[in-house]
Design goal:
The complex is a heterodimer. By secondary structure, chain A is an alpha/beta fold. Chain A has nine helices and 19 strands. Chain A is globular and about 65 Å long. The chains are: A alpha/beta, B mainly beta.
Chain lengths: ~375, ~140
């Protein structure tokens, strides 16, 4: 049954996803006086923040040195104080021609009519197929992190991690803290791809990292017990975790008619957007991992930028004040995208923005 | 006994956007040109208080004193595993790759609410191993 839309269903800004990007967008937009609703299909807000038990990088503006789950609590509190409404267990289904958004809650379809939409749905973990990969005990690193840090259940006792990016390194550290043995981290690359300090932490704890190796097969009856690795390496394990990158979750953006582009450095296909995170649908913004895989601090600031842009466009912010606030965030984003890891993302983001501009120039011509 | 001369050792190798060590230092001994630059320690200003070691999300800072006595120095290491080592116990000092180096005595275990669950473990280390030991073997529950 579809409920008939009434005025109570009209809202200035609908934010889809209550992770760092969505909450950043909520804090800025609700703080400017707009009516703001954050919707999330999960039962708990915070996105991935509540699984992050390590201290975060960044500056004071990003709560650096505070553990991720505590940052989640702070952001949630700030968003609520700013006047944000948060609707959980609610799944956005699409966008209708008249601009209204159907969503599912308690197995019923309801409708909301937002003036602006901010998609902040994040990314999804990649996997790699190999013989035996469907055996129980083999899962993504993020799934193992949810089990360990949210549900407080170890996925296994003897674990092999596939992938030496920050996710692989950090989740390995969490697992050791929770009492598991990580027998090793393998990577197909010839160097560790995550931050050196994260790698140092895990190596100091005695976890070996094997480079130039790939997983060949997993075997076991009923559950993985043996993994074969290139270079004649074999591990006896009860779990294999895959930390092989993330991709933006583009499904909703596609449904909303946003044009999709491709950026290898940002995780693959993603919605094309301008420097204000506006997509090719003039009422839809994107921010955080859905707008290119980066990390939580960038997601938070991108969310802020999208939030400010949306309410400026609705007239809730004086243009001079809005521009000033945007500049502050842009400056921070530039800082976050510096250095040996950030530079590539800065360049990739610039390419996305210039592709967006080019498209509109071509259309006008 | 003369006073221990403690100083922070920063093992932060890469330009990543991160500066809690700078804001944590009460002496202003750590500076960075911008968020993604490497931190620089002004040794003359450093008192070896250990607040940067607690604040560093990368656990990349230890506090070193090379003059504890004739034969030994001390290392103060950030530690995030349970159970915590006990004061007075002998544990295994490990290097940057987790390889056992030597036995070390635990002199002090510091945990404060403001440390946000990172504790400081101070161990007595023979002088010849002061540049090698960077961790301790985890205590088995």
């Amino acid at each position: 049954m579809v409920t008939v839309p009434g005025s109570e269903n009209d809202i200035d800004v609908l934010i889809i996803g209550a992770g760092p990007a969505g909450l950043g967008a909520a804090i800025e937009s609700a703080g400017s006086g707009a009516s703001v609703l954050v919707m999330d299909e999960n039962s708990l807000p915070g996105g991935q923040l509540f699984k992050q038990i390590h201290k975060f990088f960044g500056s004071e503006d990003h709560f650096a040195g505070v553990r991720g789950f505590e940052i989640g609590k702070i952001l949630l509190e700030q968003a609520r104080k700013a006047g944000t409404m948060i609707k959980l267990d609610s799944k956005v289904l699409g966008l209708m021609d008249d601009g209204s958004v159907p969503y599912m809650v308690d197995e019923k379809v309801k409708i909301i009519r937002p003036r602006k939409i901010i998609i902040a749905v994040g990314g999804k973990e990649n996997t790699i197929p190999f013989p035996g990969w469907t055996l129980p005990g083999i899962m993504t690193a993020g799934a193992a992190q949810t089990m360990t840090n949210i549900h407080r259940t170890l996925p296994g006792k003897k674990i092999l991690m596939v992938g030496s990016g920050n996710v692989g390194l950090i989740v390995s550290y969490h697992l050791i803290q929770a009492g598991a043995v990580v027998v090793g981290i393998i990577d197909i690359a010839n160097e560790i791809s995550g931050y050196r300090v994260h790698a140092d932490k895990i190596q100091r704890a005695g976890v070996p990292v094997y480079l130039n190796r790939k997983i060949l097969s997993a075997t076991g009856s009923g559950r993985v017990d043996t993994v074969n690795i290139s270079g004649d390496l074999e591990f006896k394990v009860d779990s294999v975790l895959l930390a092989v990158g993330l991709s933006p979750l583009t499904d909703l953006a596609r449904l909303f008619g946003c044009r999709i582009c491709y950026s290898k450095a940002l995780g693959g296909f993603m919605p094309l957007h301008d420097e204000n995170l506006l997509t090719t649908n003039k009422n839809v913004y994107v921010c955080g991992d859905v707008a290119g895989i980066e990390e939580a601090n960038t997601a938070l600031d991108e969310g802020r930028l999208a939030g400010i842009s949306a309410v400026m466009n609705l007239g809730y912010l004086d243009p001079a004040e809005g521009t000033r606030r945007k500049q502050e965030v842009i400056k921070r984003l530039r800082e976050l995208r510096r250095g040996m890891y950030g530079e590539k993302r800065e360049l990739a983001k610039k390419r996305v923005v210039s592709e967006y501009k080019k498209m509109f120039l071509n259309n006008e011509a | 006994m003369k006073e221990e001369l403690r100083t922070a050792v920063l093992e932060c190798w890469e330009e990543i956007p991160c500066n809690p060590c700078v804001t944590a230092c009460p002496a202003g001994a750590i500076t960075m040109r911008s968020l993604s630059d490497l931190p620089v320690l002004e040794k003359n200003l450093c008192t070896g208080c250990g607040l940067c070691a607690v604040a560093c999300p990368g656990l990349a800072i230890i506090i070193l004193a090379d003059n504890h006595d004739k034969l030994n120095g001390t290392l103060t290491i950030p530690y995030e595993f349970l159970p915590l080592p006990e004061k007075g116990s002998i544990v295994t000092g490990t290097d940057r790759r987790g390889v056992s180096i030597c036995s070390v005595e635990v002199l002090q275990v510091l945990c404060a609410t403001t440390f946000r669950e990172t504790c400081l473990v101070k161990v007595l280390v023979p002088k010849e191993y002061l540049n090698d030991v960077r961790g301790i073997k985890r205590i088995q529950p």
